[in-house]
Design brief:
This protein has about 120 residues and is an alpha/beta fold. It is about 40% helix and about 20% strand.
Length: about 120
């Protein structure tokens, strides 16, 4: 059975780049969300065992998504993908439950390293 992966970013181009960085042979079913509200809806629909989450989005940002996941006790492996390079952003994201933080532009090697480290992907 394919692993449900959700890519969340308000930029369609950023979502495309994230999807391209995922391992080609990884057995996944990819869904996309353009904001935090869509991300939580997709999560509730079972489409986010693994979530690649941008922090800066209109409406509901990535921090609010993480806060909601944490508050509701929802189980999701979150990897933040953000252009926000401030150390405080990474610290806050991890305090809110993000497992890893990748700075944009995303690269495939870093994604594979993180997924392998946590046993989500074996190559």
């Amino acid at each position: 059975m394919s692993l449900p992966v959700l890519v969340v970013d308000d930029s369609g181009m950023s979502r495309k780049l994230t999807i391209r960085a995922l391992p080609k042979e990884w057995d996944i079913e990819i869904s996309q969300a353009a904001n935090g509200f869509e991300a939580l809806e997709a999560y509730h629909d079972g489409k986010a065992h693994v979530m690649f989450l941008d922090l800066t989005m209109p409406g509901m940002d990535g921090f609010e998504v993480l806060e909601t996941l944490q508050r509701e006790g929802l189980d999701c492996f979150v990897i933040v993908v953000s252009a926000d390079v401030q150390p405080e952003a990474e610290i806050r994201a991890k305090e809110l439950g993000a497992m890893a933080f990748i700075r944009k532009p995303i690269n495939s090697e870093k994604v594979i390293e993180i997924l392998s480290e946590y046993g989500i992907y074996e190559h």
